[in-house]
Amino acid sequence: MDIASFKRIASVGDLEGPGPFALSAEGVDLAVVRTANGWRAFDGRCPHLGALLGEGELEGDHLVCRNHRWRFELASGHRVGGPECLSSCPVVERRGDIYADISSLRKDVKNKPALRKVSALPGPRPLPFLGNIHQLDPTSAHLILERWAARYGSVYTYRMGGARAVAISDPGLIHEALRQRPETFRRYSKMDRVLAETGLRFVFNAEGDAWRLHRKLTVAALSQRQVRQVYPHIKIVAERLIRRWRRLASDGGDLDILDELKRFTVDVAALIVFGHDANTVEQDDDPINKRLAVIFPTWSRRILTFFPTWRFVKLPRDRHFDRCMAETLEWLSQSLAAARERAAKGAAASTFLDAMVNATDENGAGFSDEVIIWNLFGLVLAGEDTTANSAAWAIHLLADHPEWARRLRDEADSLLGGAPTPGDLDAANGLTVAGAVANEAMRLRPVAPVSVIEANVDTSLGDIEIPRGTLVTVLSRPAAVSDAHFTDAGAFMPQRWLEPPAGAHDLSALIPFGSGPRMCPGRSLALIEMNTILALLYKNFEVERRGRPEDVKEVYGFVMSPGGMKVRLRPRA
Fold it and tell me: For domain 3-105, which architecture applies?
């Protein structure tokens, strides 16, 4: 065996237990496991949607993908119940280090024959210098991009100032693009600059080796195993929310349901991630969510703004944003200082933050305060806006379909008995009607309808040539609401997730958590939170949406929110 062809991938001392371990060498992702017969190393990306298999689980002699539970035999790499097979590569242990020969796993990076150039694609007419950016209102950009898709097709071009963009809504092209991150495609570089200038570089906007480092830290906090351990925290916050809503319901006023749900998701994230009981649920004045309500829309507006005025002149709204950022980072810094104090006293790690304080990188060095705070912010972001908005959209849709509100309530009554909330993770997972409602809401009202990536190299998508620096705008909703992919796609039909209809039911057209190796690591936690929220709301209250359905608007501001949505609650007898 020629050890010269092998690349070092880890130190044995850093790999505790059997795995799996998400490792990499020269941009090639690996899933490495320790078996009774020695080390095994597989291609690190699931052949289904490209998720990182090293983030999965071992169950007996099988490697299980954490996202859609595909199972692969460790001995052969074959998928249980399917024709797919994982590629493997030789792996050896030498003097306390692990080495792998990745030559057989390297992908052919040569461009596929491209039949069309970007300039030949249809699209709206751009203006000189501005392109089409003047047409993209930051609060409704997703609707404009979707209207262009309806007019010009599933692949079209437009301009963001001087940058050429290709918009895609075909599921095949979307998965092809997202599976090639972070090597071939990266997040929009302007987005990275907007976030980085506020001092943030975390898993959301990190790239390359930095992304792998941040991803490793983040996944540890959001694994299915960790969600099971921290579910009691979710239950505590849920019970507080019921008490708050009973009090507010007795007052008879209208509630901003999105604000209420953000209290829940922020409190859950704070307890899970760094053991801090923010308890915004029981506060009338909620400073944390008020700050985040400024931060996210500001990012969205700046990403779509042609000229960065805030870098030269600070307007009042820019100064307000700066204060919100500083106060949020100070809050996180205080939590980190408390964790470091606990570690100095020898306390056992009980939260994700404690684990980060005690963790070391591949060279045995601890992580800096800056890196830890970046990732704390990212986890608060992931746990706050997206889940709360998805649940709010589900409540909006249920207001127009009371038969499903009744089914959801009946399920909660049947499975939970006299308990006001799911008692444990298994009870929350058993709420299949709530899960079906959540899936249908994410299909019709995706909170991330647009994402923008950028080509790192000259490449291609399908039969389209994609030069380096070209922006690729992923539109996730058009395919999900097309009859070509889902039967009666425009209708709210949660039953399609309980008993798939005889017609179209194309799961590849629904990507609420993304696809590929950068698929959202918080998927499991988000689904559990939505099940819990919907069950506790409809089990304990009668829910009435105030105003007309058309008064609730889709407002884009980093995520898509139900603007103007108010509800009135009445306690159930």
Answer: 3-layer Sandwich (2.102)
Segments of 12-120 assigned E as strands: 21-25, 28-35, 38-43, 57-59, 62-64, 71-73, 88-89, 91-94, 97-100
- What confidence tier does 20 reach under pLDDT thresholds 50, 70, 90? confident
The total number of residues shown for the chain amounts to: 573
* pTM for this prediction: 0.81
Residue 381: per-residue pLDDT: 67
pLDDT of residue 414: 94
Q: For the chain, what are the domain ranges?
A: 3-105, 208-571
Per residue in 173-204, is it b (16+ CB within 10 Å) or e — as a string? bbbbbbbbbbbbbbbbbbbbebbeebebbbbb
pLDDT of residue 109: 46
Q: Are 268 and 236 in contact (CB under 8 A)?
A: no
Tell whether domain 208-571 is in CATH 1.10.10.10.
no
Per-residue pLDDT of 423-448, as tens digits, reads 888 999 999 999 999 999 999 999 99
HEC readout, 495-546: HHHCCCCCCCECHHHCCCCCCHHHCCCCHHHHHHHHHHHHHHHHHHEEEEEE
For the ranges 52-61, 235-244, 374-383, 386-395, the lowest mean pLDDT is seen at 374-383
Cα end-to-end span (Å), the chain: 74
